[in-house]
UniProtKB/TrEMBL annotation:
GO terms for molecular function: calcium channel activity. This is Calcium channel flower. It comes from the Eukaryota. It is a multi-pass membrane protein. It is found in: Cytoplasmic vesicle, Secretory vesicle, Synaptic vesicle membrane; Endosome; Presynaptic cell membrane. Pfam families: Cg6151-P. Signal peptide: none annotated. It comes from Cephus cinctus. One of its GO terms (cellular component) is presynaptic membrane. Keywords: Calcium, Calcium channel, Calcium transport, Cell projection, Cytoplasmic vesicle, Endocytosis, Endosome, Ion channel, Ion transport, Membrane, Transmembrane, Transmembrane helix, Transport. Belongs to the calcium channel flower family. The keyword Membrane applies. InterPro entries: TVP18/Ca-channel_flower. The chain crosses the membrane at residues 38-59, 65-90, 102-119, 125-144.
Length: 189
């Protein structure tokens, strides 16, 4: 058993199919899950640190920190349910999200990361929410799927039979009328 296979067996979720069902590269899956796990831990820590700002009278920053902590906890429950074993519903939530397409997870992560930055554009908040946002971007890339092979892309690029015309009479719409001439409207119509 190679090192990569051992790593894959360790990172495999309980009840997960050993054969991948989509064409997403394995390194992109591990990047999304790893950044989601580490990013959510940092977001929780930095959000808690920002909540201390209420001592100094900053009202919007603790709200932003709490939002970031909740967002970090939600990302952690989906990406690393083993970190939240003390909560009963975490495994069910994680399994439910795994069945959804990647674009939905990307949209939720990106939308969760924006409000804390809008409330308190501080470096801690930008970094913590930025990690969650970057996780959403990685899942967005995963939703795009695998590129076509090089030969297929060359063939599809070469099949464009329309040659752009450089004459003055070419138009984008074939039935277009000249712009300088207008006819008087018919009274019979």
């Amino acid at each position: 058993m190679s090192f990569g296979e051992k790593l894959a067996s360790i990172m495999q979720r309980p009840g997960q199919d050993p054969v991948a069902k989509d064409d997403v590269p394995f390194w992109l899956k591990y990047a999304g899950r790893g950044l989601g796990t580490v990013g959510s831990l940092l977001a929780i820590f930095l959000g808690a640190f920002k909540c201390i700002g209420i001592i100094f009278g900053y009202i919007s920053c603790p709200i932003s920190g709490m939002w970031q902590m909740v967002a970090g906890f939600l990302v952690m429950t989906v990406e690393a349910p083993c970190c939240c074993m003390f909560v009963d519903f975490v495994q069910n939530l994680s399994d439910w999200v795994e069945k959804k397409p990647y674009w939905s997870r990307a949209a939720v992560y990106c939308l969760l990361a924006i409000p804390p930055v809008l409330l308190c554009p501080d470096l801690n908040i930008i970094f913590g929410s930025g990690l969650i946002f970057t996780t959403g971007v990685i899942y967005g890339f995963m939703s795009l799927g695998k590129k076509a092979p090089l030969d297929q892309m060359r063939v599809s690029a070469g099949t464009n039979t329309q040659i752009p015309s450089t004459s003055m009479q070419s138009t984008l719409v074939e039935n277009a009328q000249p712009m300088g001439f207008t006819n008087t409207p018919d009274s019979n119509v």
